[in-house]
Amino acid sequence: MQNINDGNAMRMEISARSDNESFARVVVAAFCTKLNPTLDEIADIKTAVSEAVTNCIVHGYENGPGVIVIRCEIEEETVTVVIEDYGVGIDDVDRAMQPLYTSKPELERSGMGFSFMEAFMDSIKVESEPGEGTRVIMTKQLGSRSV
């Protein structure tokens, strides 16, 4: 999403608070509606956004203050969603993306956030540096159903 070509894009910042998670998922879903997605596709996107935003809140900022930046772009039939925090970062992204891994077992976290994102989106890329924050880039193709 570095270069916004002829696609349609949006950007918003929200406070890293759990009560903003539902707002984020609704805004991203609404942005995608111009591609005429199915209800299942919208549910997939909302679930992936929820997981990414929750990760920012719980892990990135450890339930403290912070800002989450959400960017979306539509190019042709593909939506790209970028969710970024400037929190503690991830020291080992590969390990963090393993199913059932959690850095917060005391909070009874399931460790399935990245797995859900991978299951519901077509692609996911995670970029992170300890002390610098984390960026999750997810894509999903919509509206290309055969009749």
UniProtKB/TrEMBL annotation:
Gene3D superfamilies: Histidine kinase-like ATPase, C-terminal domain (3.30.565.10). One of its GO terms (biological process) is asexual sporulation. Its EC number is 2.7.11.1. GO terms for molecular function: ATP binding; protein serine kinase activity; protein serine/threonine kinase activity; sigma factor antagonist activity. It catalyses: L-threonyl-[protein] + ATP = O-phospho-L-threonyl-[protein] + ADP + H(+); L-seryl-[protein] + ATP = O-phospho-L-seryl-[protein] + ADP + H(+). It holds the Pfam family HATPase_c_2. Keywords: ATP-binding, Kinase, Nucleotide-binding, Serine/threonine-protein kinase, Sporulation, Transferase. Residues 40-144 form the Histidine kinase/HSP90-like ATPase domain. InterPro entries: Anti-sigma-factor_SerPK (IPR050267), Anti-sigma_F (IPR010194), HATPase_C_sf (IPR036890), HATPase_dom (IPR003594). SMART domains: HATPase_c. Binds to sigma F and blocks its ability to form an RNA polymerase holoenzyme (E-sigma F). Phosphorylates SpoIIAA on a serine residue. This phosphorylation may enable SpoIIAA to act as an anti-anti-sigma factor that counteracts SpoIIAB and thus releases sigma F from inhibition. Belongs to the anti-sigma-factor family. This is Anti-sigma F factor. The lineage of its organism: Bacteria, Bacillati, Bacillota, Clostridia, Eubacteriales. The gene is spoIIAB.
